[in-house]
């Protein structure tokens, strides 16, 4: 894995040198584009891209100004370069955006089956998503646009993203600011050799505003980015049962989320293999800082998380297998290492104040623990937790919600194998620190659990676990010096050191 990442980074250094040394500049203003924030420049910008592509490639340069556009298509050997003060500004008319048939999705900037493409510079791509999405709602209500309008909002695919690249090779996105999409923000779908670095993302203007979505891509580097998103921040997906999301490096990033921070799924049909995630900070995260979900047939293997700091997060770690849309393909999750993590879980709602904050749901329940939850015949295997400190508010009140430790209580926790995976789906769980069910080969080494208030539950509860090692595990809970903090049920091969 490390060797592959070093080769990938070396490739990107050579690629960046090639782009800098051989790119010819074509200014959109020379083609007649106007950066006045009013003129619709779609045809002119597309002509500049086509011209650069037909003449050996180069940079299509946006000078300072606000260049309004609908959907444009990036072509091979062409980079969009946004100078400081330049903004590619989305039209607020939904009819100015194309719904691309090969992905059944809408975007402001598309690239389909292209090579050596990029978006660079200190400028901004502004989707004006709130305005455009609400204009679309108006068209739907007037009967001018057909849309299911589920949950009182248009279908995601009918609202434009800022960027959607599909089946592209050698993709470079550097230094830009992305803001206010009407749907997801940026998607890289079945691409190879993708570098995204030094981005600033403000993606919370409307529903479903993910930060970055990586779908069935290989050889991906995401680094030095700051992403503030109303939905999942770093979201890795697989839409194809034969697809593969692998050889990924995510490092030195900061995220804020009204959903999940680092997430595998959903959808999760193919492979997620050979990931290195290091030095990531998450804060004000409504759901889990780390979620790996294999519920649609996914194969998740060889994942290393090294260095996560999560502040004010609703949940720390959620590993889950299930059978939702798997169509008979059995999922698995194994060889997972999560180390050097510090996390704080508050009593209050972590994303309070977002324009589109997450719902208050799955109540009554006390604060949920981190969890590893497989299925009886599809256990999560070989997970190592090392150098981790979880500080939770504690305060679990049995008069508000209660789950006991009797066999009847523990057996009554539903499997929910076909349900959308969320840490809160089981409602009350019997532990305040970590709940582990249907797993094999679980190791905790140098792990600290701290509850700020006394909780009626023990810190760790296991159910149907084969092979549990607890080494240098510490518990701090007020008024609980003599409390048994580890409770095992149907668990074999327990080693406590």
Q: Percent range for helical residues?
A: 10-25%
Q: What is the straight-line distance between the termini?
A: 31 Å
The figure for the number of domains is 1
Count all strands and give the number: 31
CATH C-level class is: Mainly Beta
CATH architecture: 3 Solenoid
* Side-by-side strand order of the widest sheet: 25-26-28-29-27
Mean pLDDT across every amino acid position: 95
Shape: elongated
- How much of the polypeptide forms β-strand, as a percent range? over 45%
Radius of gyration: 24 Å
Identify the CATH homologous superfamily: Single-stranded right-handed beta-helix, Pectin lyase-like
Structure description:
The chain is mainly beta. It has one domain: Pectate Lyase C-like (3 Solenoid). It is 10% helix and 50% strand. It contains 4 helices and 31 strands. Helix 4 (407-411) links the parallel strand 28 (380-394) and strand 29. The longest helix has 21 residues, at 2-22.
């Amino acid at each position: 894995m490390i060797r592959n990442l070093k080769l990938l980074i070396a490739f990107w250094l050579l690629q960046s040198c090639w782009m800098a040394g051989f790119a010819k500049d074509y200014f959109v203003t020379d083609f007649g584009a106007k950066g006045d924030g009013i003129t619709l420049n779609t045809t002119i910008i597309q002509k500049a891209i086509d011209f650069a592509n037909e003449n050996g490639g180069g940079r299509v340069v946006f000078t300072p100004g606000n260049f309004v556009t609908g959907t444009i298509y990036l072509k091979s050997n062409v980079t969009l370069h946004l100078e400081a003060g330049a903004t590619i500004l989305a039209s607020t008319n939904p009819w100015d955006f194309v719904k691309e048939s090969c992905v059944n999705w809408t975007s402001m900037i598309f690239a389909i089956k292209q090579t050596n493409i990029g978006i660079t510079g200190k400028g901004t791509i502004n989707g004006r998503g709130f305005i455009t999405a609400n204009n679309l709602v108006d068209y739907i209500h007037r009967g001018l646009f057909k849309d299911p309008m589920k949950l009182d909002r248009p279908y995601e695919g009918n609202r434009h993203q800022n960027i959607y690249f599909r089946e592209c090779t050698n993709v470079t996105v550097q230094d830009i600011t992305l803001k206010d999409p009407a749907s997801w923000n940026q998607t890289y779908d079945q691409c190879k050799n993708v570098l995204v670095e030094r981005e600033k993302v403000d993606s919370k203007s409307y529903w479903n505003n993910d930060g970055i979505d990586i779908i069935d891509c290989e050889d991906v580097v995401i680094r030095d980015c700051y992403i503030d998103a109303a939905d999942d921040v770093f979201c890795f997906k697989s839409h194809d049962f034969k697809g593969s999301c692998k050889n990924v490096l995510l490092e030195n990033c900061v995220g804020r989320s009204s959903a999940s921070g680092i997430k595998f799924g959903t959808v999760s049909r193919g492979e997620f293999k050979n990931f290195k995630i290091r030095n990531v900070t998450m804060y004000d995260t409504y759901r889990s800082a780390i979620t790996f979900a294999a519920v649609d047939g996914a194969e998740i293997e060889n994942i290393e998380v090294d260095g996560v700091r999560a502040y004010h997060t609703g949940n720390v770690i959620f590993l889950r297998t299930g059978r939702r849309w798997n169509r008979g393909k059995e999922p698995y999750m194994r060889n997972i290492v999560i180390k050097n993590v510090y996390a704080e879980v508050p009593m209050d709602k972590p994303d309070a104040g977002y324009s589109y904050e997450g719902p208050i749901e799955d109540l009554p329940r006390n604060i949920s623990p981190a969890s590893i939850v497989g299925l009886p015949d599809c256990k999560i295997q070989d997970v190592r937790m090392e150098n981790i400190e979880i500080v939770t508010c504690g305060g679990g009140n049995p008069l508000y919600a209660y789950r006991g430790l009797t066999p009847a209580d523990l057996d009554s926790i539903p499997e929910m194998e076909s349900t959308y995976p969320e840490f809160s789906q089981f409602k009350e769980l019997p532990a305040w620190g970590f709940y582990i069910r249907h797993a094999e080969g679980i190791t905790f080494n140098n792990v600290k659990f701290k509850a700020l208030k006394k909780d009626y539950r023990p810190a760790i509860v296991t159910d149907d676990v084969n092979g549990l090692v607890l080494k240098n595990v510490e518990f701090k809970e007020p008024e609980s010096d003599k409390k048994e903090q580890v409770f095992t049920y149907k668990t074999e091969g327990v080693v406590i050191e």
